Amino acid sequence: MDIAPRFIIHETTHWILNHHMSSKLPGYLVLGTRHPVRSLSDLPDNALGEMGTLLARIQKTMQSELQPKWLYISRFGHDPRFPIHFHFIPVYHWVEDLFCQDERYRVLKNFGAGVEAHTLTDGAELTLFIWREFGESPEPPSVQGPSIEEIIERLRVAFDQKD
């Protein structure tokens, strides 16, 4: 898959970091390898070595620049069209609030009387919410805070300063 240049945040010898092209959630990033492989074991040693440092750097940069409540880092990879890649999903306070207020998602948990909904959410449920509402919905929720374009520029500057 070709990544539109406007979404690219940072590039290294073996990896490309970009904003998720179909997500409307500002700060949802994808780190993908430049190698046409789907398994970590098929990556060259240099790519594996670069990967660990880069994963940590992305996490640290996202946490300091975007300040999400949670940051999910995941590898999903059953689609043969895409080489191995990692998702960095920021869960902001306002995203968790939207999830808790949406009756369609309340059935995922049995919210008990007197128990705050936020304490009963988990990563799988919030990830589902983000994918459905910010990725697949023709009318995604309103975003609170910086736009995708502003986030991309902020992260580009942060990565350039550290090079």
Q: Uncertain regions: pLDDT < 50 for 5+ in a row?
A: none
Fraction of residues in H or I helices: 25-40%
| SSE order, one letter for each helix or strand | EEEHEEHHHH
Quote the average pLDDT: 90
- First-residue to last-residue Cα separation: 26 Å
Question: In angstroms, what is the radius of gyration?
Answer: 17 Å
The outline comes out as globular
Biggest sheet strand line-up: 1-2-3-5-4
- How many distinct helices? 5
Query: Major beta sheet, specifics?
Result: 5 strands, antiparallel
How much of the sequence lies in strands comes to 15-25%
Structural class: alpha+beta
Name of the CATH superfamily: HIT-like
Q: What is CATH's topology name?
A: HIT family, subunit A
Q: Write down how many β-strands occur, each being a DSSP E stretch of 2 or more residues.
A: 5
CATH-scheme architecture: 2-Layer Sandwich
